[in-house]
Design a protein that fits this description.
alpha+beta; Immunoglobulin-like; 112 residues
Length: 112
């Protein structure tokens, strides 16, 4: 009986540890560049929490993802993707652009 209890206790500890690791995962958001535009052009993200941003450039040409407010910039070759670590952001809006196509490639993070 004691052995059975020990095994159950170990399973419970492992399950609890697994849940706490899962709860601490960094959220992941996808941003697509298509026809020199960002989709979506407004991305809602959690305030006060770090997140990962995957930028998928579906255009044939390169684009530079840039957010002067967040001091982020990354050149993404055509038909490639890049992952950026962002935040944590205070509540508010933060603009970003595609520097190579500034007239059409515009968007913002909305941290709430």
């Amino acid at each position: 009986m004691k052995r059975h209890f020990t095994v159950l206790a170990m399973v419970a500890l492992l399950a609890g540890g697994y849940q706490s690791v899962c709860a601490q995962e960094t959220p992941l958001y996808l941003l697509v560049i298509k026809d020199h535009r960002f989709e979506p052009n407004a991305l809602r993200v959690p305030a006060n929490q770090k997140f990962k941003l995957v930028v998928n450039n579906q255009d044939a040409t390169s684009e530079e993802f840039e957010s002067p407010a967040l001091k982020l910039e990354k050149i993404i070759a055509g038909k490639q993707r890049a992952t950026l670590n962002v935040g944590p952001l205070q509540p508010g809006s933060y603009d970003f652009i595609g520097e190579f196509h500034e007239k059409t490639a515009k968007g913002q993070f909305v941290a709430q």
